[in-house]
Design a protein that fits this description.
This protein is an alpha/beta fold. It folds into three domains: 3-84, OB fold (Dihydrolipoamide Acetyltransferase, E2P), CATH 2.40.50.140; 90-251, 3-Layer(aba) Sandwich (Rossmann fold), CATH 3.40.50; 268-321, Probable gtpase engc, domain 3 (Ribonucleotide Reductase Protein R1, domain 1, Orthogonal Bundle). Helix content is 32%, strand content 21%. The protein has helices at 10-21, 55-58, 126-139, 156-166, 183-189, 206-214, 272-278, 295-301, 307-350; strands spanning 25-32, 37-40, 48-53, 69-75, 78-84, 90-94, 102-107, 111-117, 142-148, 171-174, 195-199, 239-242, 248-251. Strand 12 and strand 13 form a beta hairpin. Helix 3 crosses helix 4 (156-166). The longest helix is centred in the C-terminal third of the chain and has 44 residues, at 307-350. The structure holds guanosine-5'-triphosphate, magnesium ion and zinc ion (ZN). Guanosine-5'-triphosphate binds at residues 148-149, 151-152, 176-178, 202-208, 221-224, 231-235, 253-254.
């Protein structure tokens, strides 16, 4: 196995040059874990191995994520990761719960497949899809929507139209792992050598699609509960699979709820028609309420902007703005803490105490 088999190219090699001088080796994180990272490396036999981190070199909160290129060295038979290479794309969400922490689902992904399921009572909703599309544009990956389980849909064409309205400008594929529908299109969108990631609610068929593209069973799949058609969170780890044809597919655990990560403007890319109109409002800080010369209001009146999408955009912006203010707060608090620490150290120095 070579590194090229894992998506390595000249650009990566350039970025790696300084590490090479330090006699470090390159590798790609295929399965991050707690303290132990499974990495893919060049080699004839042991091309996947476990690695540990040297916290110092990487810094707090910058742990490697699935898909990362890292620099590692051998130390007493163990691989030690000491640096993470620059990331080209980052798929992030806000960690679940009351925190304002970022959770990275995958990095260095080229195509992000947002998987939703059709039929069966718990089909996709346009509002839910808008969240995923917001995350997808923010990640820097090329987004593609997969409407899976087309075999369960009574009117696939109508559902595609609905998805198109919720994800303007994004390619929508109707698929079925049961009939094989759409699998060729997925392959077309993800040529060998590129990395694709699959995200979406639990039970929509992300792992099943990976298996269908691979043609063999690579990822575990699970039954959906009859009672509420919900998945059971079968996939518990993020894992980058390499297919024999060279395609790289990142499977991720299904999300119960997707909370966004980004700044106040991160939702704009997913709502191009609103972004375009708001650029024409008379006031730059227009809130699109009752201001004179509000182009968004005109757009709503003329039916260029759907009221549901406008409400959804406002809500996502509110959520993102809240997150931004929380982050500012945290940054301020950290800075204050730093100055307090410095003041304490200076006081102790004055008293002639040993401080470190
Ligand atoms: N009818 C139908 N069922 C499907 C299709 N694709 C997957 N399934 C079924 O849906 C269930 C869930 O599939 P998984 O692939 O495990 O779903 P997942 O998105 O990976 O779920 P998590 O790992 O929990 O996030 C399984 O029982 C699959 O057999 C499809 O195209 N049509
Ligand atoms: Mg799965
Ligand atoms: Zn306005």
């Amino acid at each position: 196995m070579t590194l090229e088999d894992w998506g390595w190219n000249e650009k990566r090699a350039e970025e790696f040059a300084p590490y090479e001088q330090e006699e470090l080796n390159p590798g790609r994180v295929v399965r991050p874990g707690r303290g132990i990272y499974r990495i893919a490396v060049a080699g004839n036999t042991d091309y996947e191995r476990d690695a540990r981190l040297t916290g110092k070199a990487i810094g707090r909160g910058k742990a490697p994520a699935a898909g990362d290129w890292v620099a590692w060295r051998e130390e007493g038979g163990t691989a030690i990761i000491s640096a993470v290479l620059p990331r080209r794309t980052v798929i992030s969400r806000k960690a679940a719960g009351e925190t304002s922490r970022e959770q990275i689902m995958g990095v260095n992904v080229d195509v992000l497949f947002v998987v939703q399921a059709l039929g069966g009572g718990r089909g996709f909703t346009p509002r839910g899809l808008e969240r995923y599309i917001t995350m997808a544009w923010e990640s820097g990956c090329l987004p593609v929507v997969i409407l899976n389980k087309a075999d369960l849909s009574e009117d696939t064409a109508a559902e595609i139209l609905e998805a198109e309205a919720a994800a303007p400008g994004v390619e929508i594929l109707a698929c079925s792992t049961l009939t094989g529908q759409g699998i060729t299109e997925i392959k077309r969108l993800l040529p060998p050598g590129l990395t694709g990631a699959f995200v979406g609610p639990s039970g929509t068929g992300k792992s099943s699609i990976i298996n269908a593209v691979a043609g063999i069973l690579l990822a575990d799949t699970g039954e959906v509960r009859e009672a509420d058609s919900r998945g059971r969170h079968t996939t518990t780890h993020r894992e980058l699979h390499r297919l024999s044809d060279g395609r790289l597919l990142l499977d991720t655990p299904g999300l119960r709820e997707l909370q966004l990560w980004g700044n106040a403007d991160s939702a704009d890319a997913a709502f191009p028609e609103i972004e375009e109109m708001s650029g024409r409002c008379r006031f730059r800080n227009c809130r699109h309420e009752k201001e004179p010369g509000c182009a968004v209001r005109v757009g709503l009146e003329e039916g260029i902007i759907e009221p549901e999408r406008f409400d959804s955009w406002l809500e996502l912006r509110k959520e993102l703005r809240w997150l931004e203010s929380r982050r500012d707060e945290n940054a301020k608090r950290e800075l204050e803490q730093k100055w307090m620490d410095i003041a304490r150290i200076n006081r102790q120095k004055k008293k002639g105490k040993e401080v470190w």
